[in-house]
Design brief:
The chain has helices at 3-26, 60-64, 69-82, and strands at 32-37, 42-47, 55-59, 94-98, 104-109. It is α+β, with helices and mostly antiparallel strands.
């Protein structure tokens, strides 16, 4: 790896960390996978608690600007809502029923103990 490739890898990791941090702050408990490729200008994000195909794409130029992390917050919340999950903290005891393709059909939470 030459110094240019090393510098690019560091910059990509910084962007991934920036997006991942803001998603963890706004949606704690959810597992986010962030991948960045500067040569294409694309940041791809997936929520690992959902089906592996569910995610969204951000443009590097939009995230690099001041306040650009807002696009990650908005897209992360929309992804959760489209899968019938609440924005915000992941419920501790979350049960998601899935169909044969892995798509979420219903969501329910339960608490240990009686009520």
């Amino acid at each position: 790896m030459n110094s240019g490739q090393f510098s690019t890898a560091i910059d990509e990791n910084k962007l991934c960390a920036k997006v991942g941090k803001v998603l963890q702050e706004h949606y704690p408990g959810w597992s986010w996978y962030v991948d960045c490729t500067l040569s294409t200008g694309i940041i791809s994000v997936r929520c690992l608690n959902l089906h592996g195909d569910y995610g969204f794409v951000l443009y590097v130029k939009d995230v690099e600007v001041s306040g650009g992390e807002h696009s990650a917050i908005t897209a992360g919340g929309e992804l959760l809502e489209r899968c019938n999950f609440p924005r915000g903290k992941r419920p501790e005891q979350l049960i998601a029923d899935r169909d044969s393709r892995g798509n979420i059909t219903t969501m329910d939470t339960y608490s240990a103990g009686g009520a």
